[in-house]
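User: Okay, second chain of the day. Same drill as before: sequence in, structure tokens out.
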Amino acid sequence: MNFKQVVMTSQQKQQWDDTMSLMAWSAPGFRHLWYRLLQNHNGDYAAIMSKFTFDDILGNGDTREGVAFTDGQNIVCNPDTFFKYSIKERVFIGGHEVAHNVYDDCGLLRRMQHETNIVSAGKTFPYKPDIMQKAMDYRINAMLVESRIGHMPKDALYDPKIAEAKEGVIDVYSKVYKQDDNGGPSGPGRTPGHGNAQGQNGFDPHGLAPPGTTTGQAPGQAQQQRNPQQWALEVAQAARLESQRSQGHTPGSMQHMFDEILEPKVVWTDYIETIGKRILGSGSYNWKKPDRRFIGRDLWLPGRGGEGSGWFVIWGDTSGSIGNDNLNRYLGNMKGLIENMHPERLSVIWGDAQIHRVDEVTDTADIDTIRATGVGGRGGTSIDPVFAWIAETRDRQPDMFIGMTDGEFQFPDKPAYPIIWASIHDNKTQYPYGEVVPINT
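Assistant: Same drill. Structure tokens below.
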């Protein structure tokens, strides 16, 4: 898709200026974030003005024109449809897209692309990206309504029975899933009085594009450009602007959003990736150095160059205290580690009191094979066989060891290589050494 800026008419320019003026008065924090952190400002305009269809975002063959979307780097508005909304509705739409960026919803969808299940309130639901996008929309719209940001369009996804402003998106997901799969008061996928839950008539028809959509970058490359420290700094300023506007009485739902960003619960896979890059470097590719794994397939692909991620060893604890949900989470997030860390070698050891299988993983497709064939186990727990297997490789030590476990075993002496415990429990004191990263959703 070509996101070349569309030249607005003089009337549309005036409408845009009016929209931004009202946003500066009624939601100064949101306008601050829009102008400070999104890339394509093009002079006085904080959005890319470009015509696009639902098909451009959803790939569903629907040729009707969309209204607005974001890819986490820019906000794109279609002038032919955006300016058909009233000025207060345009402020609401703008605030909605900014909030997606505050929450980094595009990045969250990418991080969850390999998940198979969502656990909410002790129940497991199949993970579907389109339902997650709806849950994000419901949560944001509830916050905007309570905070009185603009005026909500009639085609927005909003239902206080589905989402309250302070609810976590995972909890909202479970309710949207039940509505879509089991039907609601008005049938599957309908929200009474507030547009179509399938997004066919909404201003934001699943309007979250993969990172890099507007810049032509690969999603991973685009996502790495997001600077969490800079976002935290500007979000803090936005919070101050909103507090000043409301004379110290920022709506609770809006303050809750700001607090989530300023005092975040770190996604555990991001934490592991950060530790790994700190220890090993992010690595690079060299076209002059072919990847030996693909030469036998007559494929000339670039090999690792610079500071590579080296040899990773991952232990998947398959003891009786580890449930199926945790095993599926292990497998899903291993894909993300492969894609983001690019290890030179990845050995995955599955075992409880003994080793049941060892997989040398070279591609994310290998994870699906492991999932299909099973990993065995469900007995007692001992890490001694795992450390012994590593010690038998006398020519080198792993550059990093990641133990996905509950920590319910006797710890031997600390090995010389870096260790991360991806723990399903929050009790860090039970681990006598290594960095502990509690697994969360």
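The domain at 269-438 is CATH 3.40.50 (Rossmann fold).

User: Thanks, on to the next one.
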